[in-house]
Amino acid sequence: MQSRFQSDRRLTVRMVVTLFLLGLLYVAFVAVLIALLKSWVLVVVLAAALLVAQYWFSDRVALYAMHGRIVEREEYPDLHGVIDRLCAQADMPKPVVAVSDIDMPNAFATGRNPDHAVICVTTGLLRRLEPAELEGVLAHELSHVAHKDVAVITVASFLGVLAGLMVRFAFYSQLFRGRRDQNTLVVLATIMGVSAAVYAISFLLIRALSRYRELAADRAAAHLTGRPSALASALTKVSGDIARIPTKDLRTAQAFNAFYFTPALGAEPGLSRLFSTHPSLEQRLEQLGRISAELGEAAMPGKAG
To answer: Does residue 107 contact residue 188 with C-beta atoms inside 8 Å?
Structure first.
């Protein structure tokens, strides 16, 4: 079912291209592993099982990692009310609503499709935002579900996870065999080298897609709510508060940056900005400023009439 969120063909093209390139990389990676390990059944079964598990249980894994729990309307009536209104406005199924009892202000969406999605907000976010700001953040997260880019990011990130697991598997399987001749060392070094290359390529592809999908979600949320200034205010407030949290306290959350409304990054700019999962705050605010001007110009003739 097509929601009323503003469609984005450029986002769709980017998702298709990213999945295609990662698919080619995935096939090549598995082929190399089969040639090196000489056990295609083990490699294929393990790879397929991990892919299915990550796709099918991604929502549960993310909730568990962020200490999120599903909440009913009786416990958080205002939160449910905002999501109900936005889903009715967007003509999309209502996702499961969850809350994470942590002070870091943030939100994320996860799930394999709009019928099996979860929207999770932190108590830190609920405490800090005004109702209009919270509506903007939730509309942003719902747009990820409507655009189906949550599922794409989940599948896309699988290859990097598999590469890391295969390095560990190859290392420990050879380590505990006790004997490591020259051929074994060559195989082990090759697996590690190929895995590192696969991880690096998938890392860059995912980051490029992730930055664009955040801009697309901001645009869609701004047009759905008609209040880009409220979303801009939420972005400024959340980014400022996260920047004041010590980096050591953010490390656990950083593994899920690709899913967050705002990345869990400290105040240090560094080279990490070049590989960020999100565009800069300045880029996001500049885009919302343009949309605000466009909506204001479009509304003026109506008022005059």
So the answer is: no
